[in-house]
C-alpha cells in the first residue's frame, strides 16, 4: 500500500521566530530571513514554510508577499506543541572557537535542555560570544526540527556552580581517570553532564566535585577523548538510557 506522504512535507523551510506565534498573526521578515526565503530559496506569494518560537510550538505559515528585502508572512495553524526536552544540562569548560560552535550545534541536535559554560582552573577560553553560540543553537534547532531551543547560560566559575548545586539533580562528572561506565551509572530524573577542559580537572576540583552529594564520577571508556568528543558521547549515552531516544520516532 502506497504510504500517504506526511503533510506538510518535512522538507518545508523552517525558521525560528523570536516572538510568540499565533493563528492569523501577520509577520514582516527582513534581513537574513527575508534574504533566505526571497532570494536564496526564491519563494514567492503562496509558498508555505514552518515557523517555531520556542514558546508555543511549530506553525505552518504562508508567504503573502515576497520582496527583495522584506517578506510578509501569515501564520496559519499549529503543527506541533513545543517539545518537552529531556531535563538534561550539559556543563562544559569552554574550548576553542570552531570546536565550541560545533559542540553547541551537536548538543542542540542531541536534545540538551540547557548549556552551561563552566570556567575551570585549566580553562583556556574565558570570554565567550554567547550571541554567536545562540545563533548556532538556533540554526541547529531549525535543521533538526526541534521546537524548543536549549537555554544557553552565562559562563560561571565551577566552584560557584557546585556551591549552588540544585537538590534532586544528578551530576555525572566525566572523569578520564576512571569511574562507573556512564551507561551503567545513569538513573532516571533531572541530570547534568560535566565535561572538563582539554587540560582536565585539577585534583582540588575533583575533590570539590565529589563533595556534591549527587555527583557520580563516570567513565566514557579507556581512551582519552577530546572534550567535545566526550560531550557528544556522554549526551548520546544519557539520551539513549534516560532521554527521549527510546520514544517512537516522529515520522
Ligand atoms: N587532560 C586530560 C589528560 O590529558 O588526561 C584529558 C582531558 S580530556 C581531553 C577533556 C575532558 O573530557 C576530561 O576532563 C573529561 O571530562 C572528558 N573525558 C575525556 N576522556 C574521557 C574518558 N575516557 N572518560 C571520562 N571522561 C573523559
Explain how this protein is built.
By secondary structure, this protein is of the alpha/beta class. The chain starts with 13 loop residues before the first strand and ends in a 9-residue tail after the last helix. The longest helix has 16 residues, at 227-242. Strands 6, 7, 8, 9, 10, 11, 12 and 13 form an 8-stranded parallel beta sheet that branches. The chain has a 5-stranded mixed beta sheet with strand order 1-3-4-5-2. Helix 2 runs parallel beside helix 3 and helix 2 packs parallel to helix 7. The chain contains 7 helices and 13 strands. It is 29% helix and 25% strand. It has helices at 31-40, 97-110, 130-144, 158-163, 182-185, 203-210, 227-242, and strands at 14-16, 26-29, 48-52, 58-66, 71-80, 88-92, 114-119, 151-152, 156-157, 170-174, 180-181, 191-195, 215-219. Bound molecules: S-adenosylmethionine. Residues 174-176, 195-196, 198-201, 219-221, 223-227, 230 line the site of S-adenosylmethionine.
List keywords for this structure.
25% strand; five-stranded mixed sheet; 13 strands; eight-stranded parallel sheet; alpha/beta; 29% helix; binds S-adenosylmethionine; single chain; 251 residues
Task: Please count the helical segments.
Answer: 7
Distance between the termini: 17 Å
User: Biggest sheet, open or closed, and with what strands and sense?
Assistant: 8 strands, parallel
* SSE string: EEHEEEEHEHEEHEEHEHEH
What portion of residues belong to β-strands?
A: 25-35%
**What structural category do the secondary elements indicate?**
alpha/beta
Please estimate the helix content.
25-40%
* Nearest-integer average pLDDT: 93
- Name the overall outline: elongated
Uncertain ranges: none
- Distinct ligands, ions and cofactors found in the model: S-adenosylmethionine
Number of strands: 13
Radius of gyration: 21 Å
Amino acid at each position: 500500500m502506497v504510504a500517504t506522504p506526511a503533510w506538510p512535507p518535512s522538507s518545508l523551510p523552517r525558521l525560528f521566530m523570536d516572538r510568540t506565534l499565533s493563528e492569523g498573526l501577520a509577520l514582516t521578515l527582513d534581513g537574513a530571513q527575508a534574504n533566505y526565503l526571497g532570494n536564496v530559496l526564491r519563494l514567492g506569494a503562496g509558498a508555505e514554510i514552518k515557523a517555531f518560537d520556542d514558546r508555543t510550538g511549530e506553525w505552518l505559515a504562508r508567504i503573502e508577499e515576497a520582496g527583495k528585502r522584506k517578506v510578509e508572512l501569515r501564520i496559519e495553524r499549529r503543527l506541533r506543541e513545543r517539545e518537552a526536552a529531556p531535563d538534561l544540562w550539559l556543563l562544559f569548560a569552554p574550548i576553542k572557537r570552531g570546536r565550541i560552535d560545533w559542540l553547541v550545534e551537536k548538543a542542540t541536535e542531541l536534545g540538551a535542555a540547557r548549556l552551561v559554560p563552566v570556567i575551570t582552573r585549566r580553562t583556556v577560553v574565558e570570554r565567550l560570544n554567547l550571541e554567536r553560540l545562540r545563533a548556532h543553537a538556533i540554526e541547529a534547532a531549525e535543521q533538526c526540527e526541534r521546537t524548543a531551543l536549549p537555554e544557553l547560560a552565562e559562563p560561571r566559575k565551577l566552584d560557584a556552580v557546585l556551591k549552588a548545586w540544585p537538590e534532586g539533580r544528578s551530576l555525572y562528572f566525566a572523569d578520564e581517570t576512571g569511574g562507573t561506565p556512564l551507561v551503567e551509572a545513569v538513573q532516571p530524573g533531572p541530570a547534568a553532564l560535566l565535561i572538563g577542559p582539554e587540560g582536565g580537572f585539577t585534583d582540588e576540583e575533583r575533590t570539590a566535585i565529589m563533595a556534591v552529594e549527587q555527583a557520580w564520577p563516570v567513565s566514557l571508556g579507556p581512551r582519552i577523548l577530546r572534550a567535545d568528543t566526550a560531550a557528544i558521547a556522554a549526551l548520546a549515552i544519557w539520551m539513549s538510557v534516560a532521554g527521549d531516544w527510546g520514544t517512537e520516532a516522529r515520522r
